[in-house]
Amino acid sequence: MQEFDLLVVGGGPGGYVAAIRAAQRGLSVGLVEKEKAGGVCLNWGCIPTKAMLRSAEVYETVLHSADFGVRAENVALDFGAVTRRKDGVVKNLTDGVAGLLKANGVTVIDGHARFTGPNTVDVHPNGESPLGEGGPRYAAEPAGGQPVERVTGRDVIIAAGSVPARLPIPGADLPGVITSDGAFGLQEVPKRIAVIGGSAVGAEWASMFATFGSEVTVVEMASSLVPIEDAEVGKALGRSMSKSGVRVLTDSTVSAIEQAEGALRVHVDGSKAQQLDVDVVLMGVGRKPNTASLGLDATGVATDERGFVRVDEKLRTNVDHVYAIGDVTGKALLAHVASHQGVVAVETITGHEAHIDYGVVPAATFTHPEIASVGLTEAAAKEHGHDVVTSRFPFAALGRSKTTGDEEGFMKIVAGSKHGEILGVHVIGPSASDLITEGTLAISLEATLDELADTIHAHPTLGEIGMESAMSALGLPLHTAPPRRR
């Protein structure tokens, strides 16, 4: 039996960061992982999808290269090459994480973890998970009949992550009905695809396949896409997707899926009932905690009604010396949140001060155009009792956007009307995921519109949109007509 100061169960962005920080703090660390280090983010989520979305971006750019005075003939998509490049990117990064763990002295234990007590885990070897859905990654029980290794930790961090959820509708288990994980197993671009769910995951896959040439329909039960975002952003994405040929059905739900005439027939209920005949149905309807096979009952750790582990502000569970971080906590299912939680948990264990502010967490959706946000939406700010002023500054008014030819979208700032404190920043447009950092820092430092407007920004850059948006919110725009304050 191996014994450690800290035992981390799960090697995703939360688990491996926690393990590295703990080793830096002088602890002996064991990390149990049943796949390659990096978790969902590196193996099944953030990284592989962004690699493929980059291929889509390049493909679209080349198709329109004549707009920039560059002639390209016989442009074609090689989907096999797209997936091979994606695999190469994933391998490079997962190998890098493995190298970091080794360099920091973390002991990595390959296998499927199952708790036998609060501080004790049996590790069942089960080999690598096959590409696509099924196999050890989704097994309700670890593979049997193989040697089991028992490991313990004085302190334990549960970082088991999450898996895609499926809607409990008739036909959800038919061949051709997949989740985001299953999409990586596709050998060719589907001719027709229905995406159930218009949040970040569904919207990204819809954007990608539309660019690759699929006939795409998105079914979203809310009144706009990416419903957690500011309403203006969601509506703008819907207009953009519709313009690019995606059929967007909002205020709609799927009641059933059935096989019919060589296709999957999707029954959609909305303003009117309709049927869609497609080749693939992709469910992008959220995620659930990956705890089914962990044996959490043996720990006494409390979970909520959805199965997420309950934690306090320091990531402590109700059981002494047992912590939980990342998606399994249900706080904010984002890789960067998991990483920060991992740091906070370890610093708490080792007697150092650290905290996390869930009110200042940036989020990004890598559709085309990109979306990013931080802080309160306009509606949420008003619900919290704020008297607000807002502004929308278009990318089309930036010189840099004109030169790149990427002019779609805007930045929206939500601020307090009395003091100008920045409450929320919302971007849809080029490099939104990079631009949101300024908004995150502004809210973290309690900056005001005046301070953002008075900060000199380099020209010509996309980053100028922060300064310009602040000026617009103050009613003093230099490069657009005076906005209507509200």
TrEMBL record:
GO terms for molecular function: dihydrolipoyl dehydrogenase (NADH) activity; flavin adenine dinucleotide binding. Residues 361-466 form the Pyridine nucleotide-disulphide oxidoreductase dimerisation domain. FAD binds at K50, D327. It comes from the Bacteria. It catalyses: N(6)-[(R)-dihydrolipoyl]-L-lysyl-[protein] + NAD(+) = N(6)-[(R)-lipoyl]-L-lysyl-[protein] + NADH + H(+). Disulfide bonds join C41-C46. Residues 4-342 form the FAD/NAD(P)-binding domain. GO terms for cellular component: cytoplasm. InterPro entries: Class-I_Pyr_Nuc-Dis_Oxidored, FAD/NAD-bd_sf, FAD/NAD-binding_dom, FAD/NAD-linked_Rdtase_dimer_sf, Lipoamide_DH, Pyr_nuc-diS_OxRdtase, Pyr_nucl-diS_OxRdtase_dimer, Pyr_OxRdtase_I_AS. One of its GO terms (biological process) is 2-oxoglutarate metabolic process. It holds the Pfam family Pyr_redox_dim. Binds 1 FAD per subunit. Its EC number is 1.8.1.4. Its main location: cytoplasm. Keywords: Cytoplasm, Disulfide bond, FAD, Flavoprotein, NAD, Nucleotide-binding, Oxidoreductase, Redox-active center. PANTHER family: DIHYDROLIPOYL DEHYDROGENASE, DISULFIDE OXIDOREDUCTASE. Belongs to the class-I pyridine nucleotide-disulfide oxidoreductase family. This is Dihydrolipoyl dehydrogenase. It comes from Actinopolyspora erythraea. The lineage of its organism: Bacteria, Bacillati, Actinomycetota, Actinomycetes, Actinopolysporales. The gene is lpdA.
